Amino acid sequence: MRFVWAVAAFVLAAMLIGAGIAQRTLFQGDTSETASVTVSDGSPYILIDGAALNSLPGSQTLRAQGEGEIFAAYGRTADVQAWLSDADYAAVSMGEDGQLASTSVAPTPAATAEGEEADEPAETTTGRSPVGSDLWLDEFQQEDVLITPLQLPSDMSLLVATDGTAPAPSKVSITWPVANPTPWAGPLMVLGGILLAVGVFLYILGINHARRSRGPRRKGLPLPVTEPIDLSVEEADKGVIAATPRTRRSISGGRRPLLVIPAVAVSALLFSGCTADAWPQLGASPTPTPTDSVLVPEGQQAPAVTEAQAERILERISETVATADKDRDTKVLAERTGGAVLSVRKTNYKLRTKIDDYASPAAIAAEPLEILLPQAYDGWPRTIMTVVNNADAKTANIMMITQDDPWSNYKLVYISNLEASTSLPDLAPYYVGASAVPPDSSFLVLAPQDLAAAYADVLTKGAKSEYYGLFDADSDVFRENVAKDRKSRLATFNETGDGTGRLTFAATAGPDEPLSLATLESGAIVAVTTHETDTVKPTDADALILLKKNPTVAAITGKKESATGFTTTFSDQLFFYVPGQGTNEKIRLLGYSSDILGAKVIEK
């Protein structure tokens, strides 16, 4: 009877396991859905709108097929459209029939001064490679066929191209996973595995029972005591080799595990094939845990960059500037720097060309990114502020980086060193961003456009300046260093030049445009430049100004002496915290750097 129940268990197990496997294979249906489109207009770019990418729920998988290198990138829809605004491209959207459709888009006409569209068609830009643009949040490249998984929200779009000149890939498709759960597949296979184990157990019991049932069923009469028999002699005569009971036990004992191991292995195989959608979901859906929220000002636009995007931009700036510094290549330098940063490094290259042991400028640190404050703005130009811990220089660098238009690289235009004791004001998180403060803002204790001139006046006149009371003197290490340096150089000059020459100092506002980003306390972080000028003139008509101990000025001017004198200009890159109106706070210097900018001979 045990064998009958074992066979019944095997049959039921096979039926249940087969039914579970059939649900996961034959009866499950499609697990993905694909929409494809063929672009035949020869456009160099394809824009796949975020609405099309999210027309079905779940992640997306892009497949683009063409000849040669295929490029794909994604970014905010507004940014991608701005990058394509002066070019022909194919816009891919999802039609009402559930299929992708392609539409040719011409360049956007330029606007006139009155804000109306121009009558003439816009000029088309061709041959612009999309590879490496700072606008992209991520980009991919593959040969002939590009396949990449994505999970983009509806406000992001996808750009597909080759090199910006050749036609974009002609065949494009998007695949979404289809939720097709089989909630009873798991229970059926598990129940089948249990019945399989029961059947094996009953089969083993049946075998053991059959073995115990061998031999006479009634007890025999008592046998007389017999003497031991020498089996070796008797069996030698008969030519028979006997098998001992120990041999039988070892053979039968070795067979039992072979019956159990296959059942365990099959059950493990069944369990490993069961995923979450193969089980019934009896519990309620998990409720997200609320997190602290940040209030975004009404009408504020999206931040210019993400954290990952900013890290990539900093890395590109660092690598490009390092290459330019090594080769003293101003053309390469201009690709990633501007403003005061570009100006002082050009001077450094010139000095290193003429003075063998002249020091190279400090490298631009790209990581770790400690603070990121991007401008919340959909248009251009855009500004981002970063603080990077420069381990090599044992200091932290505060930087302002700008992008002039959608097709330009971000460029480093301000960089200064933060003092260890400097405390920054409260800033908005990077995923919210901050508004740019207009240069003529009246909401600050001093407008950004007036800040450089006011501080330069304090550097020149000290406590006699009318702006002296606006600035916090206790935390201003730079002003203290400038005063000490001027006093030291004047004393050195007077040792040899007193009576025959005069050394004077002055400071003025630099020509660079101030950059400002708002803080949470209604203040702003403002970056400006000031120019410090040292002027040395002879006071005796027969005297000459010699540059024996000043090879720097001699290398820049190409002169070793002058009867009229020399001027030397230093560029100061300064970061301030400017509080808002109605507070008792003073303007605080956050960071500074000073480098020689130029020198010239005074004309008569």
TrEMBL record:
Region described as Disordered: 100-133
Compositionally skewed regions (Low complexity) per UniProt: 101-113
Keyword Hydrolase: no
TM stretches of this protein: 184-205, 258-279
UniProt keywords, alphabetically: Membrane, Transmembrane, Transmembrane helix
A Pfam match: DUF8094
Every DUF8094 domain range: 302-600
Protein name: DUF8094 domain-containing protein
Protein source organism: Microbacterium terricola
